[in-house]
Amino acid sequence: MGVETVEQGAARRSVIRGTGSALPADVVSNADLADRLDTSDAWIIERTGIRERRIAPAAVKTSDLAVEAARQALAMAGVPAESVDLIIVATATPDNTFPSTATQVQAELGIRQCAAFDVAAVCSGFVYALSVADAMLKTGPYRRALVIGAELFSRLLDWDDRATAVLFGDGAGAVVLDAVDGGARGILACRLHADGRHRDLLFVDGGPGTTGTVGKLRMKGREVFRHAVQNLAAVSEEVLAAAGLKTADLDWVVPHQANARILEATARKLGLPMERVVMTVGEHANTSAASVPLALDKAVRDGRIKEGDLCLLEAMGGGFTWGAVALRF
């Protein structure tokens, strides 16, 4: 599928051509975690909606999952890898401090000429990366982008901490994004925010510039929940207003899959029925920057999201960072 063009001077939009995902084969159930933690399947489901998660073996790298998801997205789009001229990977778990994981994806896909870099916005990472790619496709020389969210969050977990160990999993999701002149499809509006004052509510207690170690994830769940519902509802309304839309216009909301209770509370605040919210948190848990593209790919492949549907993508993560994208698929 090539890049569509129409009359010169028509407004340029970034259109999703294909989606893809990658999940490790190993499934870890709540019962598996209950064998080592003071928890139970019922406790985890009641508080999070999570039933299982995928955990990658030690030999798997973040770039491995990113490449697999990218190949699926390229196959759905029907375009060769070498036609991509921009790669952005959203991740908080890069293969290395440097080089960027995006350059590793570039090399594995055999792409010789393209820009490639990572975005670090934790669970908001894919929304941030999609917004950056949209701006670069609209205003720069770039015509086709791979935007990927990929995480091995299991590598950051303290497996003795019941409050966080049950929440997260590993995975990757990707989209092929094309610059298209004219037409109704594409990204309609993006809005991003951050507030570093809340850093201590959700963070990793290490890093090359502080401890020289990777560190472990730390979270104050109740405070994060309150900020998440408030911020996600507000940015969703903001981006819909920027796109000239109302909540009632939406066909689907594809949220960050942090916790079923956050998804339900945010939907209530927006006045949205849960039937229009894509939920994968039960089977994937929280995969950070990978969660939105993983959920998007699942809903596209099972036929829920169809060409022409109005969709809202939203996420909040450590920092705090949060944002939303309104698009016509």
Structure summarized in a few sentences:
By secondary structure, this protein is of the alpha/beta class. It is 32% helix and 25% strand.
What would you note in describing this structure?
The structure is a single chain. The protein has 329 residues and is of the alpha/beta class. The protein has two domains: 12-181, Peroxisomal Thiolase, Chain A, domain 1 (3-Layer(aba) Sandwich), CATH 3.40.47; 186-328, Thiolase/Chalcone synthase (Peroxisomal Thiolase, Chain A, domain 1, 3-Layer(aba) Sandwich), CATH 3.40.47. 32% of the residues lie in helices and 25% in strands. It contains ten helices and 13 strands. It has helices spanning 30-34, 41-48, 62-77, 101-109, 125-139, 162-165, 221-242, 260-270, 281-284, 291-301, and strands at 12-22, 27-29, 52-54, 86-90, 115-119, 144-152, 170-181, 186-194, 202-204, 217-219, 252-255, 310-317, 321-328. The strands form four sheets. It has a five-stranded mixed beta sheet, sandwiched between helices. A four-stranded mixed beta sheet has the order 8-13-12-11, with helices on both faces. Helix 3 (62-77) crosses helix 4 and helix 7 (221-242) crosses helix 8 (260-270). The longest helix is centred in the C-terminal third of the chain and has 22 residues, at 221-242. The chain is globular. The protein starts with 11 loop residues before the first strand and ends with a strand. Residues 1-9 have low confidence and may be disordered.
